[in-house]
Amino acid sequence: MSNGQWYLLYVSSGHEERAKRNLRQRVKYMDAGDKIFDVVIPTTKEIEIRSGRRRTMDKKAFPGYIMVRMELDERSWDIVRNTPGVVGFVSSGVKPVPLAEEEANAILQRMEETPSEVKIAFKRGDSVRVTSGPFVDFIGKVEEVNPEKGRATVMLSLFGRETPVDLDFLGVEKI
After folding, report:
1. Can you give the pTM of this predicted structure?
2. Is residue 16 a contact partner of residue 66, using CB atoms and an 8 Å limit?
3. Do residues 65 and 90 lie in contact, with contact meaning Cβ atoms separated by under 8 Å?
């Protein structure tokens, strides 16, 4: 990363991909690849359990922002600033301020890290359906969630009585 510095851009929230694509196209068509080197949407990886399946998903770390690595001059500033979907540079004054190198590296490194935390699609009090094991298709309420163990205590109606049953996250889905 010897070329350029990282800058943070405000973009239309929810349209980060579009702004990134537009900026890359402008760089290509305006032959500015020698000044604007890279465009990144800062994301983090999360493990999510849905429908009994564990999936790794990319989640935007800073919704409404993208990062661009560039050498700042009048032409490159104008190309980025006038890109559809880009609202402007994050800065304290008129001139854009680059991110500190340590800060940019920390964000980029966090994007590479594997997720350690599981995002659960249900919480205490939610109604859930058991999808595997001896209680398949039973419906109950979540009494307790234990993310460290990957398990949930669900109150199921067995023989007319509410009974707590300890189940794996993968064996339960929210209704």
Report:
1. 0.68
2. yes
3. yes
Is it true that domain 5-118 has CATH number 3.30.70.940? yes
pLDDT digits (tens, 9 = 90+) for 23-58: 999 999 999 999 999 999 999 887 776 666 677 888
- Strands 118-120 and 43-50, sheet pairing: parallel
From the list 117, 115, 105, 110, the residue with the least C-alpha distance to 169 is 117
Task: Sketch the domain layout of the chain as residue ranges.
Answer: 5-118, 122-174
Residue type (1 letter), 28: K
The full DSSP string for 60-124 is ESSTTEEEEEE---HHHHHHHHTSTTEEEE--SSSS--PPPHHHHHHHHHHHHSPP-SEEES--T
CA distances to 3, 77, 111, 146 from 46, rounded to whole Å, are 31, 34, 11, 17
Question: Counting beta carbons within 10 angstroms of the beta carbon of residue 104, is it exposed (0 to 12), middle (13 to 18) or buried (19 or more)?
Answer: buried
Measured CA to CA, the distance from residue 105 to residue 108 in angstroms comes to 5
- 122-174 fold: SH3 type barrels. (2.30.30)
